[in-house]
Amino acid sequence: MTIKDIAALCGVSVSTVSRVLNNHPDVSAQVRSRVMEVVQANHYIPSNSARDLVRTRSDAIGLVVRGTANPFFAEVLKTMEAKVTEAGYTMVLHQIGTCDDELQAGAMLERDKKLRGLLLLGGRSDYAKNDVAALNVPFVCCTYDNSYGTLGEEEYSSVSIDDEQEACRAVKSLIGKGHRRIAALISARNDRSISELRYGGYRRALKEAGIALDETLVEETGSFQMPEAYEAMERLLKRTGEFTALFAISDAMAVAAIKALDDAGRRVPEDCSVIAIDGITMSAYTLPTLSTLIQPADQIAAEAVRILVDRIEGRAAGRHVQVATILRPGRSVCVNQE
Amino acid sequence: MTIKDIAALCGVSVSTVSRVLNNHPDVSAQVRSRVMEVVQANHYIPSNSARDLVRTRSDAIGLVVRGTANPFFAEVLKTMEAKVTEAGYTMVLHQIGTCDDELQAGAMLERDKKLRGLLLLGGRSDYAKNDVAALNVPFVCCTYDNSYGTLGEEEYSSVSIDDEQEACRAVKSLIGKGHRRIAALISARNDRSISELRYGGYRRALKEAGIALDETLVEETGSFQMPEAYEAMERLLKRTGEFTALFAISDAMAVAAIKALDDAGRRVPEDCSVIAIDGITMSAYTLPTLSTLIQPADQIAAEAVRILVDRIEGRAAGRHVQVATILRPGRSVCVNQE
DNA sequence: CTGAAAGCGCTAACAC
DNA sequence: GTGTTAGCGCTTTCAG
Asked: Where does the signal peptide begin and end (chains A, B) (predicted)?
């Protein structure tokens, strides 16, 4: 069933049907309702392929989300959609796996949907010039920047927290409570991304407090998932129990770690304080509720859309915003009782 | 940059470029490598719109996921993708919000991507004949069926748990532990879907045990989210504390309820046992770990793909599979101690 | 092995 | 207010 069939069924031309379908004003009410009738009756749906192909320009902003599982992204996504609409654009969402390439996905979307701009939610922090050359519209990296890449400041935009700084802050808050033997649960020491950055913050906090780094207190999970975090914590506990606090680089990892501690007979926070970074909804409802530095999802989303729209409309060049986290005090941290 | 530009740049025709791009064998190695070179250098990406438009048939199976937030779906999705590939098809994923219409989204996808079949993950349980008339390929409803609809058995396929039966089983397990005053945390009494079905199972379990239904022990959350579940639990606790166990229709709701109970000074399971249905990863890592009936994600996914492929290849008519849940014993249930 | 040409279904001028 | 028609970028016969 094509627009041609509908036109024939109605005894009008394809352009008239097209006009009705696209809410153009210059169609008589009579013809309009007749066309709508036939469209409904035949369950006719216009082909987006054909539409996208013929349209030379759109008001669409693309959003490529890398990592469906990340619950934090769901919250950002919601606000982004609202802000994009508010700015008079439409949003095209595209989710990809953690293993997929967000730049390639973005380039594809740009091509197909004739995007005006691109929002990248989660991605690599090591873009080279040639990587982003595939993109011909402004883009904003959300929740990450280009710490390990070779892009110039002007060549991209970003909105994120200062991962190194915030991790440092989290660990220092532990130190402030009298903890000196602080374990770290990270994804990987050198993932050229979030984990590496936050691990760097952990190391700096220790250093600035005059505490020597003890690598036996650091465990890598290899992922951001709960099962792997639980297992990593088991390994750590098997190796050494000599710590009074734990810094986890994400909420989900922290929650799994608390369970591992509990299973090993160590109470949280009495026997081990736990702090993390993220601030997802879930960790506010687990017991004990998690103390964490929350990434302000709404602010990140709003800022990202604002920057992108400004760029699209020619009001700005590459801009980089770092938003501050907010401490959400839970019940997982207490003063060192040793 | 179009295929024409690439052709011009290479000094060949568009058909040759097309052949290279689609891995057709009849192109000389020399020309092939030259074309690839130019494609890479120019970051050329073929237009999917144009491709989809011209292609009359594909090997694609569409997957429409309704409700990004649902962590259970993420697990099903993964297995589905593997099984679809294994069967020699490609998968096209499309995520929509809880408020969107999965049939419309599916019809659109079918049209655009020339689908051979459709997998619907999460959806309404009350389709009428006219609703599904928009679909021209076989489809399988996953995690739900048509309990409240008017479809004939032959008109669709489904893979799900028996929500009423499993809820009944969950509540009976509570009764078996000596509980008689059992509260229920549901989404809505009459959502014509999961919540209504599971609430029905709750009522039947009570009835068959000779326990009168006490509506004051039933609270509606209006959603499946944790904050709403927490608040609903607060309302319930404010109204009455006279229950020794709680049945929640989902894991996430149960975890939030446990937190509400804890905040109200009631220990789980000592003061109140809690059981739910779902079996998401998260609830195995909260404290106390949740006792729940797990929906076997892998089995649902595998079964759904098998049914769909059978239908596509003409080996079967509408088929309906109900998979059994598996009890995952946690620490949230104990014998009634009153 | 390679090229020319016919559409896929639709929108948007441009006529009437 | 309505119809005619030229492409959008691509794949795919069909020739050579």
From this structure: none
* A227 to B53: CB separation less than 8 angstroms, yes or no: no
Average pLDDT, chain B: 96
Q: What are phi and psi of B202, to 5 degrees?
A: -60, -45
DSSP letters of B195-214? HHHHHHHHHHHHHHTTPPP-
pLDDT of residue A338: 76
Helix, strand, coil share (%) of chain B residues, nearest 5: 45, 15, 40
How confident is the model over B107-125, as pLDDT tens digits?
A: 999 999 999 999 999 999 9
Query: What span, in angstroms and rounded, lies between the C-alpha atoms of B287 and B215?
Result: 29
Helices marked H in chain B: 3-10, 14-21, 29-41, 48-54, 71-86, 102-113, 129-132, 163-176, 194-208, 226-239, 251-263, 297-312
Mutate to test the interface with B, among A282, A331, A332 (most CBs of B within 10 A): A282
Contact A53 B47 (CB under 8 A): yes
Give the one of A69, A285, A289 whose C-beta lies nearest to B74's C-beta.
Answer: A69
| Bridge partners for A50 per DSSP | none
The CB density around residue B15, as the number of other CB atoms within 10 Å, is 12
Distances (CA, A) of A264 to A268, A275, B240: 11, 18, 36
**Which of A195, A187, A293, A224 shows the shortest CA–CA distance to A70?**
A224
Protein footprint on strand D: which nucleotides are under 7 Å from a CB? 1-5, 7-13
Strand C positions within 7 A of protein Cβ atoms: 1-5, 7-13
Cβ partners under 8 Å of residue A285, min gap 6: B226, B230, B255, B256, B259
CA–centroid distance for A277 within its chain: 14
**The amino acid at B140:** V
Q: Does residue A42 sit at the B interface (CB-CB below 8 Å)?
A: no
Task: Write out residues whose CB is closer than 7 A to strand D.
Answer: A 11-16, 19, 25-28, 30-31, 50, 53-54, 56; B 2-4, 14-15, 18-19, 21-22, 46-47, 50-51, 53-55
CA distance A119 to B284: 34
Q: Are strands A273-278 and A245-248 parallel, antiparallel or unpaired?
A: parallel
In this complex, the residue with its CA at the shortest distance from the C1' of nucleotide C9 is A50
- The nucleotide lying nearest A19 (C-alpha to C1') is C11
Residue A287 and residue B95: Cβ atoms within 8 Å? no
Could you count the other beta carbons within 10 Å of the beta carbon of residue A176?
A: 10
Say how many CA atoms lie within 13 Å of B262 toward its Cβ. 20
- Tracing tokens 């969107």 back to the chain, one arrives at B100
Q: What is the pTM of this model?
A: 0.94
CA of B33 to C1' of D7 (A): 31
Distance from CA of B320 to the nearest CA of A (A): 26
Residue B50, CB, strand C, below 7 Å? yes
Whether residue A223 lies within 8 A of chain B, CB to CB, comes out as no
pLDDT in tens, B129-169: 999 999 999 999 999 999 999 999 999 999 999 999 999 99
Angle at B252 between CA A67 and CA B91, to 5 degrees: 35
Opening angle at CA A78, ends A198 and A167, nearest 5: 10
How many CB atoms lie under 10 A from the CB of residue B219?
22
> CA Rg, chain A, in Å?
25
CA distance B256 to B231: 9
Phi, psi for B38 (deg, rounded to 5): -65, -40
- Picking from A53, A69, A230, the nearest residue to B49 by CB comes out as A53
Average pLDDT over residues B318-328: 96
Rounded distance, CA A218 to CA A239, Å?
11
